[in-house]
Design goal:
Elements: E1 2-7, E2 10-13, E3 18-26, E4 33-39, E5 46-52, E6 58-60, E7 68-73, E8 78-83, E9 92-99, H1 102-107, E10 119-120, E11 124-129
Length: 130
């Protein structure tokens, strides 16, 4: 089992920045993928970014590329999502999720599909005011 806990959400003005954290505990795998998804009211859960736990390879949604950066601190078992130049349309509950194999997600081009992830955190609210 893997437990994930997000933190760092809040209210920020457009153009501002936030850094989300996803702390992991329990069984972990070097080949694990940790993804960030978000869900706004009345909308589908949307892929934001994913990182390979070991090796740091990452992928981003086009809507956040060049504004968001995903990184990890292996010693602290934590993955971060640095969000800059925030826009009102970034408002959502943000979730981190873990999948057993980053390589499998990439090979099958399924890393953006939330159903491919096995473990989920409880979510953290991000609100961007205009």
């Amino acid at each position: 089992q893997v437990q994930l806990v997000e933190s760092g959400g809040g209210l920020v003005q457009a153009g501002g920045s936030l850094r989300l954290s996803c702390a992991g505990s329990g069984r972990t795998f070097n080949s694990c993928a940790v993804g960030w998804f978000r869900q706004a009211p009345g909308k589908e859960r949307e892929f934001v970014a994913v990182i390979r736990w070991s090796g740091g390879r990452s992928n981003y949604a086009e809507s956040v590329k060049d504004r968001f950066t995903v990184s990890r601190d292996n010693a602290k078992n934590t993955v971060f999502l640095q969000m800059n130049s925030l826009k009102p349309e970034d408002t959502a509950v943000y979730y981190c999720a873990a999948a057993i194999s980053y390589e499998t997600l990439v090979r099958r081009s399924t890393f953006a599909e939330w159903r491919r992830y096995d473990y989920w955190g409880q979510g953290t609210q991000v609100t961007v005011s205009s």
